[in-house]
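Below is a complete specimen:
___
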Amino acid sequence: MKSVMKFAGLATVGMCFWLVVSIVAGTPEPWDAESYWTVAYPASGLLAGIIGFRSDRRGWLVGIVLTLSQFPVMLALAGNGQMSAFGLALLAALAIPVTIVSAAASWIGRRRRQDRYPP
C-alpha cells in the first residue's frame, strides 16, 4: 500500500508539473513551447534527480512516471486526437534520459545513506 501511495503521489507531482508548464507556455502539448527544450524538459530531469536521490531501489521509476504523467495532461488539454499515439511514443523516448538521471541519483543517494548510516 505504501508503494501505491508513493506512486500516486509521484504521478500527481508529475501531472501538476506538466500542467503548470502547459499553462505557462500557453500550449496543451508542452514540447510545442519554445522553452520546453531549454527550461521545462531539463527541469523535469532535475526534479527526477532530486526525487530519485531520496528514493529507494526503485528510483529509476521516478523518471518514467514524471515524464509519462505528461500524457494525461495532454489528453485533458488537447483531447484524444490522431497524434495521441505519436505523443505517447515521444514521451516514452523522452523518458529514457530522465530515467537514467533518476536511476543514477537513486544509486548515489542509497550509497550516501549507507556510508552515513552503516548497517
In short: The two ends are 26 Å apart (CA to CA). The CA atoms of residues 49 and 102 lie 5 Å apart. The longest helix spans residues 84-116. The chain has one domain: 2-116.
